[in-house]
Amino acid sequence: MSELDIQIPTTFDPFAEANADDSSAGTKEYVHVRVQQRNGRKSLTTVQGLKKDFSYNKILKDLKKEFCCNGTVVQDSELGQVIQLQGDQRKNVSTFLVQAGIVKKERIKIHGF
Fold first, then answer.
1. Which residues does the UniProt record annotate as the domain SUI1 (predicted)?
2. pTM of the model
């Protein structure tokens, strides 16, 4: 028997196609609104997953005027652009995004406490 006759079994993942389909339609489809506790009573609200077609700075400007809070747009290497607002603005941001027609209500996921 020569070395060419021996077949080495290769690893086969039967769920590779299913995982590939789920990853493209998974988290990128949703807009995630989270709250992060800073120190004491201070908190920070983050919004990620908005489409890249939108102007993040204009959305931030309207959010800051509407809710009388400060905020910024942060560029993250993994998540892309993330909007950060002072305070716990989860419900306010979600209703604002729906009323402005930016996102449908089914596509918003609110995380936190």
1. 31-101
2. 0.72
- What would the pLDDT profile of 41-81 be if each residue is shown by its tens digit? 999 999 999 998 999 999 999 999 999 999 999 998 888 89
CA–CA gap between residue 67 and residue 96 (Å, rounded): 10
Q: Distance (Å, rounded) from C-alpha 112 to C-alpha 34?
A: 6
Phi, psi dihedrals of residue 76, rounded to the nearest 5°:
-110, 145
The set of long-range contacts for 75-83, using a CB threshold of 8 Å and a minimum separation of 24, is 76/48, 79/48, 80/48, 80/52, 81/48, 81/50, 81/52, 81/56, 82/46, 82/47, 82/48, 83/46, 83/47, 83/48, 83/50, 83/56, 83/59
CA distance 34 to 9: 45
What is the H or E stretch that residue 76 is in?
strand 71-76
Identify the sign of the CA torsion 97, 36, 49, 71. positive
Residue-wise pLDDT for 16-45, tens only, equals: 555 554 444 444 589 999 999 999 999 999
